[in-house]
Amino acid sequence: MTSDARLNELGEFLKVRRAELSPRTVGLPDTGGRRVPGLRREEVALLAAISPDYYTRVEQGRIQPSASVLVALAHVLRLDDHQRDHLFQLAGRHRTQQRRPAAQKAQPQLRRLLDDLTASPGVVIGRRMDILAWNPLAAALFTDFAKVPEDRRNCVRILFTDPSMRTLYADWRAVARDCVAHLRTRAAKHPDDPRLTSLVGELSMQDKDFGRWWGSRHVPSRKSGAKRFRHPVVGELVLDWDTFTGSADPDQELVVWTAEPGTPSYDGLRTLASRAAGRLDGPEAGQGH
């Protein structure tokens, strides 16, 4: 079979497979009114974190997709091992057995640093921007992370799906756009991580801003800066934030927010810390570690 014929067969295989899947199968709402069965091209593309135009050209047999795109498509289309092998063969790519990334746990050194932060909010963020650990003051500033299911405890997902975040941040749009840019750098570093692909696809489908910002190639800010908050308990806070990378696991970062002593923001953090300490003097102390 010639290369062109294989790519045409690849396109037909993708068409058939997406027609076999319902929106609910891949976690999308089924609003009805579909003229054709299965998933639309645009939905497959967004779930695979690629552009609709790119995916269309793949289905039309006009381009040879990269191995990382094939991994994403195999995940979105729920292919089994035999189907994955067939997909890679049609694309003329060699399928390497990807080792599933080990589940991340906050490094002990970062946990100890977190435990010592009693007057500053802090969280440990993993390779997918999952929240691996936090201190009581971070929960008081942002949200009660312990009440968020572990598989949903991701700072990007929370930022886009928790309505309170849009009022907590004085400039939510700027914060969110920057957060998307940071997630893109993580995805570029781990292109074959299916959970990262799923996260990007899920948020692209749920939020038009996310999808637009994902495709904008915005360059993220540095690993430090300032954020302004409108907290429902202590009012306006202007906090500096810094990021510290763990030496034992470079894919983990400790993010800390601080305020300059003598400022209203510093006093607000002290008030928030006092309230958080009062709530966690009981058996829930240490949650998230």
Furnish the topology, listing elements before pairings.
Elements: H1 3-19, H2 41-47, H3 52-59, H4 67-76, H5 81-91, H6 108-116, E1 122-125, E2 131-134, H7 136-141, H8 155-161, H9 163-168, H10 172-189, H11 194-206, H12 208-214, E3 224-231, E4 235-245, E5 253-258, H13 264-279
Antiparallel strand pairs: 1-2, 1-5, 3-4, 4-5
Organism: Streptomyces milbemycinicus
Protein name: Helix-turn-helix domain-containing protein
Pfam families: HTH_31, MLTR_LBD
Describe the structure.
By secondary structure, the protein is of the alpha+beta class. It has two domains: 89 residues, Orthogonal Bundle (434 Repressor (Amino-terminal Domain)); 172 residues, Beta-Lactamase, CATH 3.30.450. The chain is built from 13 helices and five strands. A five-stranded antiparallel β-sheet has the order 2-1-5-4-3. This is Helix-turn-helix domain-containing protein. InterPro entries: Cro/C1-type_HTH (IPR001387), Lambda_DNA-bd_dom_sf (IPR010982), MLTR_LBD (IPR041413). Pfam families: HTH_31 (PF13560), MLTR_LBD (PF17765). It comes from Streptomyces milbemycinicus.
